Write a sequence for this structure.
């Protein structure tokens, strides 16, 4: 089974969707490490409740050392609100997946994270939003797109309501993308991710 590390900064609901999918066998992989840049992130508690190693790591070299010690083959960013060091991106080319709460290339890039994305979507008056799973490269939210799914938000009035509707999509497409990766069904050609 493929060994994964999941990075979180907050509550870890996307992490929980991955824990559930690995436990029920729909993902042919194992989460061997959960890392947070925030010691109070509830995602760490979720990991411990599932008997997964959970650590707060801010130092880049220590982070890389721990990933190598655990023989991590895939990194999943599940609500990780920090920029991934370039050295790590180079060590794991097309082996870092991120979930972003918009339809990239809309509402993405520096400054677009968490509730800020949904506030921008609401302010712009967008009628549709959604979520994107993509590989991480040196450009923020610029890596090859693996899966996207849209949702109608025309009836919603607050950024929080948009966030909750989009989260339901995130919880569905992130485990699906991880499953495809673990099954060797994603290739990257000329900067485009293809599902085979």
């Amino acid at each position: 089974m493929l060994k994964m590390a999941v990075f979180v900064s907050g509550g870890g609901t996307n992490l929980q969707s991955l824990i559930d999918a690995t436990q029920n066998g729909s993902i042919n992989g194992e989460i061997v490490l959960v890392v947070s840049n925030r010691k109070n992130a509830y995602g760490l508690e979720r990991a411990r409740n599932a008997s997964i190693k959970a650590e707060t790591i801010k130092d880049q070299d220590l982070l890389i050392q721990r990933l190598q010690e655990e023989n991590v083959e895939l990194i999943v960013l599940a609500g990780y609100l920090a920029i991934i060091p370039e050295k790590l991106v180079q060590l794991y080319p097309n082996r870092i997946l991120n979930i972003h709460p918009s339809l990239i290339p809309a509402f993405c890039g520096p400054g677009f994270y968490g509730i800020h994305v949904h506030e921008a979507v609401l302010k712009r008056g967008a009628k549709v939003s959604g979520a994107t799973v993509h590989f991480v490269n040196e450009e923020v939210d610029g890596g090859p797109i693996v899966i996207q799914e849209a949702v109608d938000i025309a009836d919603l009035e607050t950024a929080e309501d948009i966030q909750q509707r989009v989260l339901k999509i995130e919880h569905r497409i992130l485990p699906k993308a991880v499953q495809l990766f673990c099954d060797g069904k994603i290739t990257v050609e000329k900067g485009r991710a293809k599902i085979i």
The beta strands are 2-8, 29-36, 54-56, 74-77, 96-100, 128-135, 145-152, 186-189, 192-195. Residues 159-182 form the longest helix (24 residues).
